Amino acid sequence: MRFMLLFSRQGKLRLQKWYMATLMQIVLARKPKMCSFLEWRDLKIVYKRYASLYFCCAIEEQDNELITLEVIHRFVELLDKYFGSVCELDIIFNFEKAYFILDEFLMGGEIQDTSKKSVLKAIEQSDLLQESNHSGIILFSH
Amino acid sequence: MPAVSKGDGMRGLAVFISDIRNCKSKEAEIKRINKELANIRSKFKGDKLLFIFLLGHDIDFGHMEAVNLLSSNKYTEKQIGYLFISVLVNSNSELIRLINNAIKNDLSSRNPTFMCLALHCIANVGSREMAEAFASEIPRILVAGDTMDSVKQSAALCLLRLYKTSPDLVLMGEWTSRVVHLLNDQHMGVVTAAISLITCLSQKNPMSSRPCVFSLQIVSSASTDLQDYTYYFVPAPWLSCKLLRLLQCRLVECLETILNKAQEPPKSKKVQHSNAKNAILFEAISLIIHYDSEPNLLVRACNQLGQFLQHRETNLRYLALESMCTLASSEFSHEAVKTHIETVINALKTERDVSVRQRAADLLYAMCDRSNAKQIVAEMLSYLETADYSIREEMVLKVAILAEKYAVDYSWYVDTILNLIRIAGDYVSEEVWYRVIQIVINRDDVQGYAAKTVFEALQAPACHENMVKVGGYILGEFGNLIAGDPRSSPLVQFNLLHSKFHLCSVPTRALLLSAYIKFINLFPETKVTIQEVLRCDSQIRNSDVELQQRAVEYLKLSSIASTDVLATVLEEMPPFPERESSILAKLKKKKGPGAVSVTELDDSKREAGELNGGGERAAETASTPSPSADLLGIRSSAPMSAAPAAAGSLLVDVFSEVGPAAPAAAAAAVNNDVNPILLFLVTFKLALSLSRFVCKNNGVLFENQLLQIGIKSEYRQNLGRMYLFYGNKTSVQFASFSTTRLCSLTLCPQLNVQSKPVEPLVEGGAQIQQVLNIECLTDFSDAPLLNIKFRYGGALQNLTLKLPVTINKFFQPTEMASQDFFQRWKQLSQPQQEAQKIFKANHGMDTEVIKAKLLGLGSALLDNVDPNPENYVCAGVIQTKGQQVGCLLRLEPNAQAQMYRLTLRCSKESVSKRLCELLSEQF
């Protein structure tokens, strides 16, 4: 996988991984019943809309489209499990968490672990670590 | 904006995000961001900076602070630092050295959380500098026994990223085998992460695929519960996909290895050695063909087989020919196979074993295309002369198919088929000679050549009977094209044909008799000679009833019918409806290794389309024609033996079109049963035509000596009712009187015609009535047919008429003023909505007659619309079940030139066209 983008129906970028792309407009212009796959430059785009958010992956020619669609779904499930009925606002306000979850799930464009339990366990662990750091998120002070 | 309180950074971020979201305009957002940037400059906030970056604003500061965070011992600080760096920091940033240092520390920290953060960062940045720094370290972490599973997963994918960006720096050699064993890991997460790495590595590094197959077995067997790794009841779908992909790559590798090995010198002279090796090779090649997606492998396979074609071992030559046959059908290897044509032709000529020759013939057939068809067909023809009896029929079919399929030049096609008949006449099935006649009749550019060639072929002292059939048929149709030459004058042609007569079987003789009667029409000077022949006892008293009947009837016809009637009856055959060649089906039935593939069949359908000079495909193409129907272009109600039907067809088609005497006469009677008696009984009052009923609804539709059919019809909206009156003009009863409506396949969904059966008996002088209910579903161009059958004095009478149902019958007149008319006229301005025809007046240009006709058409005739009072304009709406089609008409007469210009504009293109056709025949 070359990149993954999350953007809203208004065309606002919510999450990006690996590459910035001008792809949003192409995907937004597509009608609901259209196919989830499209060719874009030398890549294949796999996208899916969840409520107001588009999840969009770019994969290479020999990659499997259907399984990529399920990569997206598994990622949404992970977000959902973590945030509890995830909505766009969760991703806006906790974008760094979304990144951490994505990192645990995908790495360098390849699947690291597909188990919901394993991924969420890793995130929970890092949350625990965070809470033990009382300094909150003021990261640097002069 | 609330002040950002120290020590509550998380809330600070949330507040900031809310503020941004509340910004009403881009300016407000920029203002808020600049304010925050100033704030962050004084107190570094990595998270907020990131958010600003994601909004699409450039962040050109804070990088150093983020790098410093990496060295923090606090998890949150380290985490945000890594996130910042992997999203914001350019891979060639000068900070990379500092970053690398921090990563190095974390990698060796033995703290799995820190190690994972570091590995994620490497994978996300993936720069060359990072590869240089860590390419040797990561494999060690990956395979170390004490590494935690989560770290292993990250390490595997991190390594993959580096391998992709800088393959030269990742030296896997010694690690590969240990990495492969990650597939055996108990933890499915590790297997999932490792498979991506292994798939990539396997492209360059030889490795065992056993763990891969093993894992696939685990994953695909339903017995194992994969717990968390089961996704919606599918066990580890991602892993399965990856494993299968890996096996595909491995398969290609294996096949390549096998092809490579075939090139190595043999390790033993024993035949067992080479057999065993080649057994594997052929299996591999058949897998390559089956796989049919690797052009490289297919071409290599073809080259390997090419070597075997000249091997001294017959077995290998045989197998190579056989395998190449399948290779020829792959688009990737077709060209490669063609390069071996000379070798294959040589094999066909010189192989001692008939089964090898058979394979060579199959291969030639399979590799044939437009570029080499002439050569291959010529070789196959010359082989036919000496071919084994067992394969001759199949060879004949193949030659016939190739000749037709790849004919560009039809004289070549005719030559080929005639040669085929000459060389292997006994093996030429009916389908083959039917086909050549069909093609000659459908292509007028080849008819003269065909006549000349058959004439020459018939000169041979011993002529195959099939040649006589083709000769009889073609000379009967097109003998006139060569009659100018004294060497092939009409009498010479006739004498030549008749010299074969006594040597032929009954069906051929029947065909020749039909050819003779056609001669009488083509060449009146032969009439006396031919009548004499028909009159002689051996014909008119022939013990075969068919021959006798023909002789009697033809003799009678030639003596009582006028020249015009003869010309009409014996007119040239109209083109056959285009159909798929039945030869292919026949070859397919024969099966065998060289049988035709489905694609070839499709191919030939397409090519057959070209062959018959385009035109609309006959509606009934879809149904499988019986062999005789295929040639005849008629659908016989009862199956009959092919030959007499073929002969009869010479006469049949005169009814399907009407000769020059009645140009538009469309009340075409098609005689389905081949009974020449009808020729006398169905007289030729065919001038009664469809076009006569365009502007009127009542009248006599058909009349002959036996039967008169009157018609009365009324229409409203899209519905119509037609009364048919069948009058028996004789004093004898008509028995088994029945009518059948025939709608072509195109017409069926357009027009719905219902009727009740009629009385089966019509007494002499009596009249019976039939009512047809008609519903127009959508616009149409064909006319429905009515088939009428009855027995008159024992002879079955059969005729088919076109019913005068035309689209204009469903007109509703529309009155409108001049202004409206021209406004609508302009609205229908697309070029395809308009149909126009300029034509010569066929009748007087009397105003009242024209007006009456236009009124009869069904539309409203509008006065005072056209500025030129000479012109006529009409408006109306055609009512169909599905839609209403608005139609405007303008007829401009030019009395001086005796011409009309007719223009139609309709909201539907097909209606404009059809109305224009119909109307232009009316004036």
Automatic annotation (TrEMBL), chain A:
GO cellular component: AP-1 adaptor complex; clathrin-coated pit
Record domain AP complex mu/sigma subunit: where: 1-128
Membrane topology value: Peripheral membrane protein
One Pfam family from the record: Clat_adaptor_s
Keywords on record: Coated pit, Cytoplasmic vesicle, Golgi apparatus, Membrane, Protein transport, Transport
One example GO MF annotation: clathrin adaptor activity
GO process terms (BP): intracellular protein transport
Domain of life: Eukaryota
Main location: membrane
Compartments, as annotated in UniProt: Cytoplasmic vesicle membrane; Golgi apparatus; Membrane, Clathrin-coated pit
Keyword Protein transport in annotation: yes
InterPro entries membership: AP1_sigma, AP_complex_ssu, AP_mu_sigma_su, Clathrin_sm-chain_CS, Longin-like_dom_sf
Family under the similarity heading: Belongs to the adaptor complexes small subunit family.
Alphabetical list of PANTHER family matching this protein: ADAPTOR COMPLEXES SMALL SUBUNIT FAMILY
Subunit note: Adaptor protein complex 1 (AP-1) is a heterotetramer composed of two large adaptins (gamma-type subunit AP1G1 and beta-type subunit AP1B1), a medium adaptin (mu-type subunit AP1M1 or AP1M2) and a small adaptin (sigma-type subunit AP1S1 or AP1S2 or AP1S3).
Name of this protein: AP complex subunit sigma
Source organism of the structure: Neogobius melanostomus
UniProtKB/TrEMBL annotation, chain B:
Major place of residence: membrane
Region (Disordered): 596-628
PANTHER family, alphabetized: ADAPTIN, ALPHA/GAMMA/EPSILON
Protein name, as recorded: AP-2 complex subunit alpha
Protein task: Component of the adaptor protein complex 2 (AP-2). Adaptor protein complexes function in protein transport via transport vesicles in different membrane traffic pathways. Adaptor protein complexes are vesicle coat components and appear to be involved in cargo selection and vesicle formation. AP-2 is involved in clathrin-dependent endocytosis in which cargo proteins are incorporated into vesicles surrounded by clathrin (clathrin-coated vesicles, CCVs) which are destined for fusion with the early endosome.
Domain Clathrin adaptor alpha/beta/gamma-adaptin appendage Ig-like subdomain: 691-804
Membrane topology qualifier: Peripheral membrane protein
Residues that span the membrane, as ranges: none
Biological processes, Gene Ontology terms: clathrin-dependent endocytosis; intracellular protein transport
Gene Ontology molecular function terms on file: clathrin adaptor activity
Keywords, alphabetical: Cell membrane, Coated pit, Endocytosis, Membrane, Protein transport, Transport
Domain of life per record: Eukaryota
Family: Belongs to the adaptor complexes large subunit family.
Residues given in the record as a 1,2-diacyl-sn-glycero-3-phospho-(1D-myo-inositol-3,4,5-trisphosphate) binding sites: 11-12, 43
Quaternary structure and partners: Adaptor protein complex 2 (AP-2) is a heterotetramer composed of two large adaptins (alpha-type subunit AP2A1 or AP2A2 and beta-type subunit AP2B1), a medium adaptin (mu-type subunit AP2M1) and a small adaptin (sigma-type subunit AP2S1).
GO cellular component, one term: AP-2 adaptor complex
Compartments, as annotated in UniProt: Cell membrane; Membrane, Coated pit
